[in-house]
């Protein structure tokens, strides 16, 4: 049977078109699968990759910075919080006294309401490198004590380490506790020799000492400062020196670095104190409850110069001389 030419041509055209469409669909399908696989992420491979990434190791600078931040304690040098080595205020001394002091031959150059310091390089009974007793005790014989403003950095003091090198140093009595004076001196930025001077002045560096009003140990701290003492022993040298240093640093900070006022307050002095007020306790039957009117002369021009203030008989008033011992 013969097909008309027109029908045959139409049939062949349809066959060719159908084959072309199927070919294009196959190509499109492969292209889609290719795009899909290129965008699929395999979690297990990503996880392994991240685990193999190197953790950034700190450089020396990083390590130093981190350790500094960790080592910096909170500032605690006030009456309520405890002072510490990280205090930026740090008694306004401007100096690091962890091992040093001022050089020999220097004198304090300052003045106040009572005039110039009248300091002399060599200690006498009533004067020395940190000024005369009239300068230190300004006003105590009249209207009341008004000490001149002096900062720690201005004070003339020997290094405790150097003091102990001399054969006749009074601080030999404190040598067993040197580590604590150095430790807490550095922590609170107070000359270690000043802390040791408090101990010599208050207790002759004898840890078993109990004062007339119940003061405790080397630094003769009052019982209200004994909280947290190991085993309740407020006379423990480490605890006692720490408590004394902490109290003095807090006092110094509260007084904006006025070291004469702070040292006086350690012995119960206060602005406006007079001779009569200082001696009032004696009349009430507690001789050793008096403020020592020679305290500043003995500490600043005696102990801080590596001089035994008691053996040298430093002072002018000697209001405790008649008090019975013990």
UniProtKB/TrEMBL annotation:
Source superkingdom: Eukaryota
Disordered: annotated segments: 26-104
Compositionally biased intervals (Low complexity): 61-104
Signal peptide positions (record): 1-19
Keyword flag Iron-sulfur: no
Entry keywords, A to Z: Signal
SUPFAM superfamilies, alphabetized: Lysozyme-like
Residue ranges of every copy of the Transglycosylase SLT domain listed in the record: 179-268
Key word Transcription present: no
InterPro entries: Lysozyme-like_dom_sf, Transglycosylase_SLT_dom_1
Protein name per its UniProtKB record: Transglycosylase SLT domain-containing protein
């Amino acid at each position: 049977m013969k097909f008309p030419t027109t029908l045959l041509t139409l049939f062949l055209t349809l066959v060719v078109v159908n084959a072309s469409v199927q070919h294009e669909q196959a190509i499109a399908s492969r292209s889609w699968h290719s795009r899909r696989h290129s965008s699929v992420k395999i979690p297990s491979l990503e996880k392994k990759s991240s685990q193999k990434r190197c953790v950034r190791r700190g450089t020396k600078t990083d390590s130093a910075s981190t350790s500094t931040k960790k080592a910096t304690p909170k500032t605690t040098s006030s009456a309520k919080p405890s002072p510490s080595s990280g205090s930026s205020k740090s008694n306004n001394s401007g100096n690091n006294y962890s091992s040093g002091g001022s050089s020999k031959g220097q004198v304090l150059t300052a003045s106040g309401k009572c005039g110039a310091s009248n300091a002399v390089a060599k200690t006498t009974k009533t004067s020395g490198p940190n000024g005369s007793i009239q300068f230190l005790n300004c006003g105590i014989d009249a209207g009341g004590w008004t000490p001149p403003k002096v900062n720690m950095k201005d004070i003339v003091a020997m290094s405790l380490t150097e003091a102990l090198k001399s054969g006749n140093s009074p601080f030999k009595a404190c040598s067993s506790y040197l580590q604590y004076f150095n430790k807490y001196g550095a922590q609170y930025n107070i000359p270690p020799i000043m802390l040791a001077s408090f101990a010599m002045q208050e207790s002759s560096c004898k840890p078993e000492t109990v004062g007339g009003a119940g003061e405790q140990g080397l630094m003769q701290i009052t019982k209200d400062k004994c909280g947290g003492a190991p085993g309740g022993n407020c006379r423990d040298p480490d605890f006692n020196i720490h408590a004394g240093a902490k109290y003095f640093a807090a006092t110094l900070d509260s007084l904006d670095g006025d070291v004469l006022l702070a040292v006086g307050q350690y012995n119960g002095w206060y602005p406006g104190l007079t001779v009569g007020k200082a001696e009032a306790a004696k009349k009430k039957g507690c001789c050793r409850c008096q403020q020592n009117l020679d305290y500043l002369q003995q500490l600043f021009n005696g102990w801080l110069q590596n001089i035994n203030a008691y053996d040298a008989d430093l002072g002018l008033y000697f209001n405790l001389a008649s008090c019975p011992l013990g």
